[in-house]
Structures
1.
Amino acid sequence: MTGPEHKCGVVGIAAAYDVVSALQRSLMIIQHRGQESAGISVFDGSRIRTVKDNGLVQTALDHDSLADLRGCIGIGHVMYSTSGPQSVIDAQPFTVSSSFGSVAMSQNGDIVNYADLRKHYLSEGMSLLTDSDTELITNILVRHLAESKDPVRALKATVSETEASYALTVLINGRLFGIRDPYGLRPLCIGKLQEGHIIVSESAAIDALDGTFVRDVKPGEIVEITADDIISHGGPTDLKQKAHCMFEWVYFARPDSVIDGREVYDVRKRIGEILARESGIDVDIVIPIPDSGRAHAIGYSIQSNTPYEEGFMKNRFAERTFILPNQEDREAAVSTKMNPIRSTVEGKRLLIVDDSIVRGTTLKKLISMLREVGAKEVHVCVGSPPVIAPCYYGVDMKSRDQFIANKHSIDEICRIIGADSLNYISIDGLVEAIGKPKNELCLACVNAEYPTRIPGEKERFQSILNARFG
Amino acid sequence: MTGPEHKCGVVGIAAAYDVVSALQRSLMIIQHRGQESAGISVFDGSRIRTVKDNGLVQTALDHDSLADLRGCIGIGHVMYSTSGPQSVIDAQPFTVSSSFGSVAMSQNGDIVNYADLRKHYLSEGMSLLTDSDTELITNILVRHLAESKDPVRALKATVSETEASYALTVLINGRLFGIRDPYGLRPLCIGKLQEGHIIVSESAAIDALDGTFVRDVKPGEIVEITADDIISHGGPTDLKQKAHCMFEWVYFARPDSVIDGREVYDVRKRIGEILARESGIDVDIVIPIPDSGRAHAIGYSIQSNTPYEEGFMKNRFAERTFILPNQEDREAAVSTKMNPIRSTVEGKRLLIVDDSIVRGTTLKKLISMLREVGAKEVHVCVGSPPVIAPCYYGVDMKSRDQFIANKHSIDEICRIIGADSLNYISIDGLVEAIGKPKNELCLACVNAEYPTRIPGEKERFQSILNARFG
Amino acid sequence: MTGPEHKCGVVGIAAAYDVVSALQRSLMIIQHRGQESAGISVFDGSRIRTVKDNGLVQTALDHDSLADLRGCIGIGHVMYSTSGPQSVIDAQPFTVSSSFGSVAMSQNGDIVNYADLRKHYLSEGMSLLTDSDTELITNILVRHLAESKDPVRALKATVSETEASYALTVLINGRLFGIRDPYGLRPLCIGKLQEGHIIVSESAAIDALDGTFVRDVKPGEIVEITADDIISHGGPTDLKQKAHCMFEWVYFARPDSVIDGREVYDVRKRIGEILARESGIDVDIVIPIPDSGRAHAIGYSIQSNTPYEEGFMKNRFAERTFILPNQEDREAAVSTKMNPIRSTVEGKRLLIVDDSIVRGTTLKKLISMLREVGAKEVHVCVGSPPVIAPCYYGVDMKSRDQFIANKHSIDEICRIIGADSLNYISIDGLVEAIGKPKNELCLACVNAEYPTRIPGEKERFQSILNARFG
Amino acid sequence: MTGPEHKCGVVGIAAAYDVVSALQRSLMIIQHRGQESAGISVFDGSRIRTVKDNGLVQTALDHDSLADLRGCIGIGHVMYSTSGPQSVIDAQPFTVSSSFGSVAMSQNGDIVNYADLRKHYLSEGMSLLTDSDTELITNILVRHLAESKDPVRALKATVSETEASYALTVLINGRLFGIRDPYGLRPLCIGKLQEGHIIVSESAAIDALDGTFVRDVKPGEIVEITADDIISHGGPTDLKQKAHCMFEWVYFARPDSVIDGREVYDVRKRIGEILARESGIDVDIVIPIPDSGRAHAIGYSIQSNTPYEEGFMKNRFAERTFILPNQEDREAAVSTKMNPIRSTVEGKRLLIVDDSIVRGTTLKKLISMLREVGAKEVHVCVGSPPVIAPCYYGVDMKSRDQFIANKHSIDEICRIIGADSLNYISIDGLVEAIGKPKNELCLACVNAEYPTRIPGEKERFQSILNARFG
């Protein structure tokens, strides 16, 4: 994957024992969803206490910082940030005092009507510390709590005002709720632990705690967990057509997670199989772009009966890019991250399977590296259709200008990246691989059909089409 | 001084140039008012940006942390905390977004009706991050701003709800206000800088910036400063009887500051003179408890024609006490802070002048140290009357139990601390030294007469009197 | 791989331009050889300046810390430490002033006669700051430099006293030398850069700098590089029989590195092929233990015509283990690191290919995790023979007690780890896979035949044999 | 005092209990001798362990960093550095392993023949990490230890090679030695503690530990202390004429310390008295430059029967100067440190007593500040004669160019600093105040007569005289 970045993971655990360590471990499991900051809030019997900091879970939530945190019910968060290092005040869970006691919230998603909501509530005298939509939602929730004195009613009132996408875990004093937006855009599932329950972005965290997957939170549902029970408080009345984000399966989620009934690894392998069926290039070996492209490549290899090999060594120590003083250094940074394995590549006709192409710049460099060590042919298969439209639901691809497929035809892209052939999976092929009805998926980034109203989006898209095709 | 600790200092500067460096320097000048955290907020033309952190100004606001802060108008704060190391979220200025733009606030004081205000606003749906009264006032201000759309009216509405004591500097987008409570409990004054103006807790900061003292902010007054002007917006309609805190002159403020027309050094020297007149002990030399007792001792020395000498060496590197593993170490810590100078003390009849006695424990240790190096007699004069009642206006003496004068007669205290004689200044003597009408001073801690209503205070005080005197 | 940890990587670069950034990047490429500390020394025209710190290259050698370092010739080091967090004084390069100017040294290896050398030189009046063998060698070199005034002669004299294993890069003022021990135990190779040369532990670093591999440093050779030239100064006269460490290919080195003529990935794939030939288990799929076991499994898959699948998700954020408060937490830590992929595993007869077994504890846990998600059979193939003897040449397996193969037969190990079958590659199979004459390899850890004299080793080994077999 | 900075303080304690806390406290007492770094070494029964870091004792040796340090015998050090922030490797004690076990050393002073010694030993094959003379002496000591196997003989051999000035505490395994140079240039004294002994730079540390002063270490003496005993091992045979640094009494040492029999406060007060006798200016009040000038001013006040007042408020939070972006800011920095007290100064004829003048720049600024607040006359008395010659014995006044008295007559200096009159104490007056024979004092900085040979010094001085007086 050489493109979009995802944002945030949430978790909540209620148990018969102190849950701080379990929250910490589950955040490490979903760390891939956000590496900018991490936090844990627990209810200690009288109030909610929060520890959060910038950095990975290992650093932000290390043994010392958690030493005094104790509680049998709590929530956690890992954050991805699009705008560089943040103040720790932006980290989540976001925790406040209210007339109803302490409230803490973790969110994954993007509130589509954030600007309108913010403007409205500021005009009503609300003050906000940050630009975070989580702070805004928390403050709205607190207002509804002051009115209704009832957590469930307050939550329902809050989400009714809030337009997609969100997966929330919310702690209101000693009660823990999990909430998923009415479209089911972002994942959220429930697990049974020994003497406890967990609500979390990805099921892999349930496995890591030796728990059992129970079910996904339903789109629009408000679920409450205790050490003993799972209580569904139903959802808002205006339930929408489901629209699960297809990119969770293609790239975001861990391969070992099961999302809305479909295991991510299996979907990716089927993507590879369908790519083999749809494109059918004759090559000597299939290689992945590590790490996310492996399952795709294995599927392709098995379906096409072409040997699978590792063609790149990925440097796990080079995750974060340095601030590099000059252009020469910046180009060298790509070589620091990936290096071809000569014995795999030399003299071979290769097929690379990548999960997606957004800009295409890294892929271009990788192909040139393969040619330098003697690849005879380099063909590319892509596990998702061309990305042409921005995402407003929590994926960091907001600027249309970055999409290579918006400016160039597939043939042009093939030439630009220097491949011998380039095949994207079809939209229908992707839908088949996911194994869900097409109308239950959000495919907006590849077909510009958004499940929610996006103010001005239709006009922008039309003007782009006009510009390109007259 | 061996007792109360003060809290917080505020500043605001508007000028024709970048004020960050001037704010930083002025905070260093009032650093004695709070060493727990420090912060600066400036308006950069479009919004308010804040840098704040735990620690001294030198550390919290060092060159690196201020590198990107620029603005011609801004406020600052140093905080004293009674409850140990705080989260940086408690540091000030407290800065929020509102319907009216950015708002930042620095406060020195203690809101007497904080609990009631908090309860009221939480019940109206407000959410609060901290237990800080500054956050609460800021949020109340933002509500009033949303209603009236007028900073001055919103400020008036806010302070009308807020009962003593406070000295505030407030930044509302690019406008800077200084506000003092209607009693004038905490100091706040205005200075003219080259092409600018400053509002600050103590006039010494004006000197340090090579500025000119203009006047004190009047009790209850709202003053606005710009680079060119000082605009008085008047105060709330319910102006109270003045009640300046006498401890600012006795102990809190810098000797070189002038507060409400009286220079602190001069007040202290007159306290010493009056002590000499009132007590008239015959001794060989007068020595101060450094650093705060020097002016008192000099006054005593001059009035009584007794030589002034330095009798203690104070270790300026031992300000903060270590976490010490055992009792032996803790006692040794006092010796780390102060050491008698033998040639001054040996064989002499000494008079120590201290500014106040709260608990008496440190003074007891100091007297025993003097006797160990050969003092013949040790007499004590105290520059403030016996402290018997708690302060609700921003001085850290809230617990009645800590006051030795509440449990013991002066003779008993003299025996407890091991002195040959003990004389406190009279209340009238103190008033004379300050040089203001008695009814314009807050003397609550020495006579239990509070300028504001303190819920339940009268009853508590009566029951104490009953317990002591039947 | 579930066992031995390797230690240290070295690099040296001479070029026509500032080499700091290239040193930093090359250390990131060999970061897997040591994550405890990192350092860079460059000659700035008059003296050697060193920056080093604990932590990964990204942290220890970040942009700020290197800001003032400049030089066209320099060396670097990454360190693995067996004894937890070290003082930064132990980090390398080790840099000193001498009669001959500045000397800096980076080392990978273990000096067998360290204790004797240390004792000897201390008795001659040497003082040592640390227990590091690098400090000792540097000080010995400085003595020889003072005598001979000739860097090459001094280096030869130094290595003559020093018994295996070592790969060194040494900076003597502006001259840069690479030295490999006479057995060739640890790797060291030479590359050509644009207007420069590099000496480095692994060839992958040459690729990352867009350089060209030139050749390995010969066992016992002293090589000097400049921006323009590679000069061989020959080696010590007593050249030994080659003894390349087989574990470099099996586990330590990056798959994309070429060591003494054999690419690591290719050796591992051949190990997999030979394992398939030697063991020939009939299973449904082959899965690796990621990341190091992938090439082995691919080789097995291709040779046995069994599908290759990913069976575990490895959490790249869980590298370092937390200090965990209780046993329950510690066991959970393994689940944090690895999670089975259900669709791959469920109902399948699996073959795991791991590179080596030292203790067997992690493998046991992994097998039980596979069974929990429904594996029908779990067979194990191991890419190296049973480890039975300690390493004295730089691999962290010094304690004989840790080797499960020293206490149990293969059948017993199979039962202990809970596998359905267990097959190790034969020693001859491993030799064939590496593709070098058996007598040019160090196989001491699997056959107890050490290339150097190890004081007391023969007796210890005999007593163990006696204990086990009578 | 507006001039020279001193360097370093040393301590050693042997007791029947753990001495870490006592070492830490005693370093806080002598913190004024060096604020750059701090360190403690203790012998734990088998080896010496050292904790040291940059910063004040409170930071560098805080509770956490000392948590694991335990031992009944140990040494400590505080360092002043002339060359800005140092690597922690330069911090002391300097600790090494040797043939004789562990050796740690703390030093106060400057080795006059450092360059020659360094050159000699490097040529013999020694390697050095730093430019610190302490590292060199330690390494020389280790060489002698390896030869003689006798700590006392090795120490004697070492100091025989080492030319003034030094006060050392040395730990050789479990034995603790204190050594003072043959001239007695830097102070070092011995105290009795409860079940222990202490050797330390200043006697104030003995007081702070509730100990009893025993005696000064004699010039050239090697003293050993244990929990029970003080053992004198005599000194080198070539005992020199005593030459105690006069600046210790005038400025460096704490007023409460007694050095070579004379209390510092008392010497300073007598300096003030003699100044009054010698100069006899008629003024209204005498004010000190705080903090170091207070005793001088008190002496003047008493002798001349002129009232003593505090004329400046010194900001104890402004010790370290900021890196200030522009000239305007840098000038403002002086005002941040000192502010005149108006009621003291206005309309008065003042006499300032300062301890010394080196450059005169700060004094000039202070006098102008006094005039700005209305001083009628400002006269200056200086407690030491004009400084005209560099110090080679540990005081940071090495560059002749910085001395204003080297370029200007006293009248000129008076005009430059803007005073109404300027009087220095005479050399004989200073000698009288110190109360020791003139030939037992080092007065080199005021009369250019050095107790040791300084290569080239005589010629340099002559050429300066020639230049000035033809």
Note: Chain C has a mean pLDDT of 90.
2.
Amino acid sequence: MKKISITEKTKVKRLPKRGIYDFESIVKILDDSFVCHIGFVIDDQPFVIPTCYGRKKDKIYFHGYVGSRMLRHLKTDSGICVTVTNVEGIVLARSAFHHSINYRSVVIFGKADEITDPVEKTNALKIISEQILTGRWNDVRKPNEKELKQTSVFSIKLDEASAKVREGGPVDEDNDMGLNIWAGVLPLETVAKLPVKDKALKKDISMPEYIKEYKKRG
Amino acid sequence: MKKISITEKTKVKRLPKRGIYDFESIVKILDDSFVCHIGFVIDDQPFVIPTCYGRKKDKIYFHGYVGSRMLRHLKTDSGICVTVTNVEGIVLARSAFHHSINYRSVVIFGKADEITDPVEKTNALKIISEQILTGRWNDVRKPNEKELKQTSVFSIKLDEASAKVREGGPVDEDNDMGLNIWAGVLPLETVAKLPVKDKALKKDISMPEYIKEYKKRG
């Protein structure tokens, strides 16, 4: 099993038993979502911006408008932090103190590499698209030269990364076990509701199976 | 309507029509979630850590273990960024380029103020608890002195904040409207699944209504 090296930044300090450093576990968490939060610093001020991503092999890909503050900043080769968080339940203990959240999260540190070659860029956009909705890319009109020029695409390697996972039921103090308080877990799940077709949708276009059968990642 | 002043940091630059700066709209988005991502900087390196929060009046409250890296760092009075993102749907356009995500997000900049008074601290913990699961606080065993000492609680004011919202269907190029491609929105929603009771739950404790009738914020 591929291990990712543990560094001072990625080592889980609070509740270290929740720390996970093997590549397969990290990838599984990343593959169950498509929205990350990217942290970057301009003049000592941190910014945290949500964006979509796709994962392939040992890289995360993300994109945006070429003129966006974040993507312009990433060209300066400064260190960033990419965090993915899957919230999976509310842990209800007998004491307020032992309440918790069940979650699986990944934190990645590194520098973002810009992808400029049009073929590689298009491939990266396909990876992002397929992460959000597998099967969609084949159906749609692909990016043209003008659209590619308006889009910046970056990747970050899963070199310095760690995961943190909390699962299972509440852990209460022995003294509290006799209290008449309901305890357990309220699991949360993100689901798709009925698709809403575009008002201008042409007649006789049926809904693709990959939309009908969508299972949310995360 | 209370307006929050627009600063260079909070001004929405990319797609400015998506920018929202009034207090009520920002609060509505914050009240529909309970997980934020906090960005902070140590030695030029950004960190992005997910955590729970509660909102009351013009403040966000969050807490954690007193020894955690993040909370220890917040005592240094450095600038942070708190981001809340509610993902609400996948926008399926006819071209890859015009695919998008429907979302409502808030970004807050500022410094975190530590709350040390035990009564204020307990009130802040109640605000966080009630944001996660309204009705829970009344039922549970409240924090004792030892537990309060193990917990750091911070607030951040909604002084420098903005929201960004994308809603509605796809916006395609005129040239693409004739393509035989299904277009529309796949709405996403986070829902509660059946609660799982603790294995050690005493008999004859019925599940409270606020758990049965839980509606996820966000």
Note: The first strand of chain B starts at residue 19 and ends at 20.
